[in-house]
Every structure is written in C-alpha cells, then in structure tokens.
Specification:
306 residues, alpha+beta, Beta-Lactamase, 3 domains, four-stranded mixed sheet, 11 strands, binds zinc ion
Length: 306
C-alpha cells in the first residue's frame, strides 16, 4: 500500500500526463483557503480557459501544488516539454488566490496522427477518428473481459468451501502440451476441500511456476480459476494503448508479419493486443502486439477461455 503522500504524488503525476494529452494549454484562477476555525483548506476554481471537462482535474492538481508550494510562492511541475505552474497572486493566511498555467515547449502531436502514419493510414481527421474509435472499442472489450476474469478467480481459502467445483486438468490445455499441468492429472475430479496439505502445495506451486490458474469446473458455463492471489486487473488506458502502438514496431511479435490496424473485415494480419500472461489480463506491462492469427492460436489452446 502506498502512503497518502505517495498516493497524492502518483495521482498528480497522472493528472499532469492527462492534461498533457489534451493537447491544450490552460489558465485557471484558483481561490480558497482555511475554512473558519478548522485547519482544512478548501479551494475552488473561479475561472478557467478553455472551459472543458478537465476543470476538476485542474483543481485537483492545483490543490496538490498548493500543499507543496514553496516560500517564494510559486511551484512548477515539468515533465518532458510540458510544465504546469502555480503562482500565488495575493491573499493572507485565510484566503488566497493562485494562478494555474500550463506551458508547452513544442506543439502537441495527437497520438492518433502518429499511429496513422505508422500504420500507413492517411492521417485525415476522419481516419484519426477511426483509430481513436478502434482503440476505445478494444479498451471497452478488455475491461469487460478483465472484469469477467476477476469474477472467476478464486483463492484456495474461498475454494475450500465450494461444494460442486472439481479440479479439471483438461480444458485449459486441450492439446495436452502443458507438461507441468500433466503432473496434476491425479488430482483431477477432486474438490479443493478434498486435497491434502501436500496436494494443495503441489497445485499452488503449479500456479506459481506457470503463472496459469487451475480450472475448477462445474459445468460448461460455470467454472472458476483457482489462483494463489487475485491479480489486480488494471486494464490499460487509452493513453497507455496509444503509447504501446507508438513505441512498438508494426511487426507481429511472434511471426513478424506486418500488421494492419483498421480493417473492415477479418484479416489474419490485423493488429491485436495480446496479454502475455493470460491470467493477468490487459494490464499495460502485460501487453504485446501480435497479429490476429498468432493471437487466436494462443487462445484456442484452451476450451474455457482464460
Ligand atoms: Zn503473427
């Protein structure tokens, strides 16, 4: 667990990044101060230009900066060529006015434009919009899949009280290629509560070594994924997927074919975001770019999709 200071620091870094990706520059007037006899301080945003949905983010970031403002009454947070500054304008110990300003050293290039160029798509506004939609649709489906996966995950402790789910060593490895899983064949058909301590360790070691769950099966539509601990499933954000597209090659990580991004119908070479360790879902550090064909080969290895 991060402490409060670290959490605030992390949150303000994220907001800084999000403001950078708006491509805009902001000016805002922040006012507020101590609330009567209490020590807490409250601030609000009095004016902001341009006015858009980021008003709250600006207020949050400015409030974090006020906490850390130095004696010379200004504070700057700079990352790459993007700086957010907070300057104290006037006030006393009860009420103060601050100016929040952002500055860019070079004009922002929208990621969709860079992505278009990388994938030989003409960077017209219409195509940039299509790229955006394509990324957004994927995030939507990954979030859904991660959510469903999380619902299926279960730890040993909770699995102990499941009455009608039994270990199944078949369906997550239909081509019988997982040598480690074969070692658990003798436990197939058993409930978790029926395992001895040694057997539980065997199962738990398999999960630790292979980073794969063990299937607890009840019926074709009802099965659980036994894990040592539930993964945190942080589905990648729009900016993270864009960064992955921009910083990686447009060749498939496995077969090296040249991938294409916008396709009206299914083509084997179309780009997919592969979650390297299936169990961990589409978390930013767990993604590799690969073509549809390679991705589907990986998925078809199991019958009850993880
Ligand atoms: Zn491939």
């Amino acid at each position: 667990m991060l402490n409060i200071r670290e959490q605030i620091w992390k949150r303000s870094e994220i907001i800084h990044q999000e403001l950078y990706h708006t491509g805009k520059n902001y000016v805002a007037l922040i006012v507020g101060g101590k609330n009567g006899k209490f020590e807490d301080c409250y601030y609000s945003i009095q004016k902001v230009l341009p006015k858009d949905k980021n008003e709250n983010k600006i207020l949050n970031l400015a409030t974090f900066m006020i906490i850390n403002i130095s004696e010379n009454k200004e504070i700057h947070s700079r990352k790459g060529g993007f700086t957010c500054s907070l300057i104290h304008r006037k006030g006393d110990k009860y009420y103060s006015e601050y100016l929040f300003i952002t500055k860019r050293e070079t004009p922002y290039i929208f990621p969709e434009e860079v992505i278009c160029k990388k994938y030989d798509i003409e960077p017209t506004l219409e195509n940039q919009e299509k790229v955006k939609l394509s990324i957004e649709n994927r995030i939507y489906s990954y979030k859904h899949r991660d959510y469903e996966k999380k619902k299926r995950c279960i730890t040993f402790e909770d699995a102990n009280i499941l009455d009608d789910y039994v270990i199944n060593t078949l369906y997550l490895d239909i081509y019988n290629k997982d040598e480690e899983l074969k070692k658990l064949n003798h436990l197939s058909g058993k409930k978790v509560s029926e395992l001895t301590t040694e057997q539980k360790i065997e199962v738990s070691d398999y999960i630790k070594i292979t980073l794969r769950p063990v299937l607890l099966y009840k019926s074709p539509r009802d099965s659980k994924l036994l894990v040592n601990e539930i993964p945190d499933f942080q589905t990648a954000s729009y900016n993270e997927l864009s960064d992955i597209l921009i910083t990686n090659s447009n060749e498939c990580s496995y077969c090296k074919c040249k991938m294409s991004l916008l396709n009206k119908k299914y083509v084997e070479s179309s780009l997919t975001f592969d979650s390297i360790i299936s169990l961990y879902g589409h978390k930013k550090d767990n993604i590799k770019l690969c073509c549809s064909l390679c991705n589907s080969k990986k998925t078809f290895n199991n019958k009850l999709d993880i």
